[in-house]
Design goal:
three-stranded parallel sheet
Length: 120
């Protein structure tokens, strides 16, 4: 698995660790299923449709293509995204302060302008 997918795997494991710390235990009070489209948008759409048919309580999309596929497929199921740099530009949310719809999440956008200004 290349570096990108290893990074996404780290994010997945971190999410599971956070859920465990809140008392959610796989197989007890948490059903967690993980599939990867490995960056292929067509496969992401197929996976998203499959998950929506299963009617989970919430869907979590890691990375932009997966989150986009879930948002399109899941009109009434809450979607949480992570590892998305520009959720507004990716059309996942209307704005960062008022996401709207059934979608929320975490952006990994780095405030580059602030870093450059600080460095100068």
């Amino acid at each position: 698995m290349n570096g990108v997918y290893n990074s996404l795997r780290v994010v997945t494991h971190a999410k599971l660790a956070m859920l465990r710390s809140k008392g959610y235990i796989q197989g007890k009070n948490l059903d967690f299923d993980y599939k990867t489209a490995q960056g292929n948008p067509a496969i992401a759409v197929q996976i998203a449709r499959q998950y929506v048919r299963e009617k989970p309580d919430v869907l979590v999309g890691i990375a932009t293509p997966t989150a986009q596929a879930l948002v399109v497929a899941a009109r009434s199921i809450p979607v949480v995204f992570t590892a998305v740099t520009d959720p507004v530009g990716a059309k996942l949310v209307k704005s960062l302060t008022q996401p709207g719809k059934n979608v929320t999440g975490f952006s990994d956008l780095s405030p580059v302008n602030q870093h450059v200004a600080t460095a100068l």
